Amino acid sequence: MRRSRGWTIGRVAGAPVIVTPTWFLAAAVLTFLFVPTVSNLRPELPDAAVVSVAFAFVLLLFGSVFCHEAAHAVVAKARGQEVTELALTLLGGHTAFTGTATAGSAALIAVVGPLANLALAGLFWLGFQVIPVDILALLCFAAFFSNVFVGLFNLLPGLPLDGGQLLESVVWRATGSRTRGTVAAGRVGRVVALGVAFYAIAWPMLRGFAPQTSTVMWTLIIAMFLWQGATVAIGDARRREAVAGITVASLMRPAVTVPCSAYLPAAITAAATRPGAAIVTLNAAGTPLGWLNPDAVTSVPTATLATTSVQAVLVPFPSGSGVDQRLGGVDLLQRLAASSRGARIIPVTREGQLTGVLDVTVVAAAVRATGAK
């Protein structure tokens, strides 16, 4: 999975927290939009102070977004997922993670984000009640309102929102098919996108008011984001179903092993006992180090064969590139994308023991055969 571009400012659940370049655009625009509100409420403040207060609100808003994404990440990690990044972006943020999930785990990971926002809203409301009416109280009220909005908005039942992931999990649990859950939630997500656009444009007009240009622009951006996210989710679900039958067990090759201290005659003899098997070298601890390319072996002159170590023609496995024999479908593709590091052949293991090798080009051919894009 490709990592977002930007600056890493920390780590949560073992994953980098990334501030993307688009965040600065969002921060600038939101600060500009909030300046008139601060100026109207506190007209005695100088311009620099007004801008500072508006920017402080933006920082509180994105701090709340960070808490939302951190909640996703922590629970995902606790449920056995591998969190790959938390990113702050133009439209808020996202958390990326991989691994095999159940409907229950997916629902739990989804719901904690909005719950985190609603919990923060309660804290900011308490702060607004106890702090005297001043700038801090204003910021507390603004943060309370924004967290309520973000929490409730994310609970709308359509992908890519958290509420859509909850709907996906419900349909998944009821039907036994994650694909059906994703497609259903994606279609509802498109309806939500249209509803957001309707609210921004048609609703004010039906009430006899002209829609505000800034509100229409931002709402349409959000609606387009929702529509695109729902469409991508539906496409991903169909691709996931198409590649579900691709498994390591069905595509792997058997392997014979030789110690890394062996010479080529021993490797050739081992290969002869199991035609078609890959030759893999192990260190003293039994860890796979690499494989022997048959072309490299046959290119060694006969006169020097007996004195040539297997390490001389070894193609090393990238560190951490091994895959579990039980992997398949999208989980397998994500694993290969994250850890194969351009290697053609990688080791296959089961319960820590080498069981064979996997040719990445064979996997790519199997994906192409499904017609998935």
How would you describe what is shown here?
With 373 residues, this protein is an alpha/beta fold. Helix content is 58%, strand content 16%. It starts with 6 loop residues before the first strand and ends with a helix. The mean pLDDT is 91. The protein has a four-stranded mixed sheet, with helices on both faces. Strands 5-6-7-8 form a four-stranded mixed sheet. It has a three-stranded mixed sheet with strand order 9-10-11. Strand 5 (255-259), helix 9 (264-272) and strand 6 (278-282) form a beta-alpha-beta unit.
The amount of helix comes to 55-70%
Q: Tell me the number of strands.
A: 11
N/C terminus separation: 15 Å
Q: Profile the largest sheet.
A: 4 strands, mixed
- The 3D shape can be described as elongated
In the predicted model, the low-confidence regions spanning at least 5 consecutive residues are none
Q: Give the amount of beta strand, in percent.
A: 15-25%
Structural class: alpha/beta
Topology order in helix (H) and strand (E) letters? EEHHEEHHHHHHEHEEHEEHEEH
Spatial strand sequence of the major β-sheet: 1-2-3-4
Count helical runs: 12
Radius of gyration: 27 Å
